[in-house]
Amino acid sequence: MPATAPSPAPASRPAVEAVRHELSFLNYFRLVQALIYVGLAFSPPGLGWPKLTDAGFARNVALVFLLFAMAALLLTRRGTQRSRLVVSGSLVVDIVAAVMAVTSMHDARIGIAMMLAVNLSAGALILPLRLSLFFAALATLGILGHSVFELPSVDSSMDRELLESGLFGLAYFASTLLCHVLSRQMRATEALAEQRSIDLANLSQVNELIIRRMKTGVLLVDDANRIHQINESAWMLLGNPSADQRDLGRLAPELSRRLYHWITSGKLDETATQLADGVPEVVPRFTRLAPNDDSHVLIFLDDTSLVSRRAEELTLSSLGRLSASIAHEIRNPLAAIRYSAQLLAESQDLSSTDQRMVEIINNHCVRLNEIIENILQLSRRERSRPETLDLGRWALNFVEEYRQGNDLGEDSLRVIAGNDPVAAMADPQQLQQVVWNLVQNALRYGRMPGQPARVMVVARHGEHGVPILEVIDRGPGIPPKVAAQIFEPFYTTHEYGTGLGLYLARQMSEANQASLEYVRVAGGGSCFRLVLTPAYRGKNVEAEA
Asked: Is the CATH number of domain 387-534 3.40.50.2000?
């Protein structure tokens, strides 16, 4: 579809409110103006001022203008979307009424002309410059026209009247121009203030979101030891208290004690402490919102488990690089040892004891080579190249390939998959390595004593249609204490295990935006569940890995 031009942004709420206030002021002033006209037109004859050239005409003009002012005020209260049209029409009425009032009440011409300047100035706050100057010119022509056509019947100097009318006209133009400039500046200031308000609100939301999602706990405490603000991490580190608990002394006595000690002595206790049962230990830190002001204090709670995890990640990273370099150096002498052992095994003069020793050497060389290969694979793991796969068909191909390359004997390996395709995004080679490792472990360890292994590879949909691939065995299962550590590097319960297989499997799964977890099977057995990323709709599903 062709790009469409963006629709104009609607007027901001502060700008609309400002126009409404200016229009209300103009209408209220017009009402006062009309009341003055009525007062002048209905003034008692005994006062002698002003002299009305036509009392009936003056009173009719005043009453009609009063009715118009009241109607305009009511319309403004109800609201209008056409402010420029309303102001333009009302200014025409104001100018006509003022000229008629000056004609019928000549003695009050100066006051009437001065009040008209207020109408024009208020209109200039709302109308464009050209339209405002047009009404200023119209008012000037009206006042000058009255002076020209009415002067022969008035006992006054023509030059003075024309000069006054000209000066009023100049004042109309000056006040209109000045009010329009002020209006533009005011609109620009309001727009800038509104934009700054939006930016400040957005910044406040961003800061609040950042603080709420921080791994470090943050609390704001006042001098009465009451909590004003608390983020999610601090709430969890305090043991998930109820929302109405705001007294720090009751909620976390040890933290309150350390805060008081820090305020009174200025010394910080940096030993780790547990603020509630079942939560990690934390190291609290304190800081004032303002120097030498203890009315509000920020408390930071550093989770020691996060620090330990980061240190462990750094240690593993350094250890991985070091192990890779050591493993690379070991491969050559290891290959020489194995080759020598193979040559020695071919000798006809070896006794049975020596043959057993050679066999032990070969077995340990194979194990060492497997460890080296795992370490090197961990250090030089390639970037994943995901493809769209049908997990059911992929699992069938995998099991067939595994059977061709391995002698299962009495052990069984089968696939469970439905007729509907289970589409997922994964790197076929890395998925092959992950499932191969899981199947190897299931066939090796997932068997009851004296019985063959029964392993199933299941491809199915999970909740919300996510693709799932499971490797299930019917063995004794994994004890809970061991299950919590099986994905850690170099952890193994078998004397010939390397402790890197499941760790590598999880690392490659995460590289494919997938998650690998252990699930205990009811009635005995183990299940390693791989939750993958769903494939995009509309793409063809590949049949082969």
From this structure: no
